[in-house]
């Protein structure tokens, strides 16, 4: 199984809502990532988990809260988001752990988030 | 933090023509990765280059890493309509800022 799955596919939420994005991989990968991608822009790294521990936080606002319950699951909890947070949120995983030499990233299909 | 610049932003070619996208960094890169994202899709890993002067081929795709490890290129020979999409290079993920290049969007006219 070489697939990263993400749920939901689409999410519309108000600025006062609390919601969560979920990501799952069963490849035994040791690193998992959250990216944000705006239309016609490259993915922007948000968080990296290495061996289930948060290793990189790219100065992401606290309204985004990641969680790694186990080695296969990664969540992104959302609270009090702004309309400018609307984007495609991509999860990825890799066997290798950055910054070591090889970490081929497998991306999930993403969650398209709209904040109203 | 590091910054990876990618050009061109867009490339329109006739089917059968060649295509090249370039990435440049002001600092030496320990590695560089290349991804392809189809319209409406997610990035798909193509290759990682690690060694100075490295050249790798995947069918019609040729990837190069510069001698100084500051630049890289992806060349597609005889493009096909299945090659359409955005090609991204990505610098290494370190404790500092990690960046994808801005991408080159390739369109192929049949």
Order of helices and strands of chain A: EEEEEEEEEEE
Largest interface: A-B, 22 and 23 residues
Helix content of chain A: under 10%
Rounded to the nearest angstrom, the radius of gyration of chain A is 13 Å
Q: What count of helical segments of chain B does DSSP give?
A: 0
* Spatial shape of chain A: globular
The succession of helices and strands of chain B, N to C, reads: EEEEEEEEEE
Biggest sheet strand order of chain B reads 1-3-8-7-6
Distance between the termini of chain B: 41 Å
Can you describe what's shown?
The complex is a heterodimer of chains A (116) and B (110). Chain A is built from no helices and 11 strands. In chain A, strands 2, 4, 5, 6, 9, 10 and 11 form a 7-stranded mixed beta sheet that branches. Chain A has a 4-stranded antiparallel beta sheet with strand order 1-3-8-7, with no helix packed on it. Chain A starts with a strand and ends with a strand. Chain A is globular. Chain A is mostly beta strands and 116 residues long. The mean pLDDT of chain A is 94. Chain B is built from no helices and 10 strands. The mean pLDDT of chain B is 93. With 110 residues, chain B is an all-beta fold. The radius of gyration of chain B is 13 Å and the shape is globular. Chain B is 0% helix and 51% strand. A 5-stranded antiparallel beta sheet of chain B has the order 1-3-8-7-6, with no helix packed on it. In chain B, strands 2-10-9-4-5 form a 5-stranded mixed beta sheet, with no helix packed on it. The chains are: A mainly beta (116), B mainly beta (110). At the A-B interface, strand 5 and strand 10 of A face strand 5 of B.
């Amino acid at each position: 199984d070489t697939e990263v799955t993400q749920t939901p596919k689409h999410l519309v939420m108000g600025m006062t809502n609390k919601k969560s994005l979920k990501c799952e991989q069963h490849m035994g990968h040791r690193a998992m990532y959250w990216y944000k991608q705006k239309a016609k822009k490259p993915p922007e790294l948000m968080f990296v988990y290495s061996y289930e521990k948060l290793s990189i936080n790219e100065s992401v606002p606290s309204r985004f809260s990641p969680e790694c319950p186990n080695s296969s699951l990664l969540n992104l909890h959302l609270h009090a988001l702004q309309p400018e947070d609307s984007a495609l949120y991509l999860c990825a995983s890799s066997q290798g752990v950055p910054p070591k030499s090889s970490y081929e990233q497998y991306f999930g299909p993403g969650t398209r988030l709209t904040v109203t | 933090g590091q910054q990876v610049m990618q050009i061109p932003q867009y490339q329109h070619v006739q089917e059968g023509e060649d295509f090249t996208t370039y990435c440049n960094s002001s600092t030496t890169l320990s590695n560089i990765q290349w991804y392809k994202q189809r319209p409406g899709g997610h990035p798909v890993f193509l290759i990682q280059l690690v060694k100075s002067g490295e050249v790798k081929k995947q069918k019609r795709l040729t990837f190069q890493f510069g001698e100084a490890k500051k630049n890289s290129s992806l060349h597609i020979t005889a493009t096909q309509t299945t090659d359409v999409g955005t090609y991204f290079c990505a610098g290494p993920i370190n404790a500092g800022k990690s960046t994808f290049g801005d991408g080159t969007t390739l369109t192929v006219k049949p």
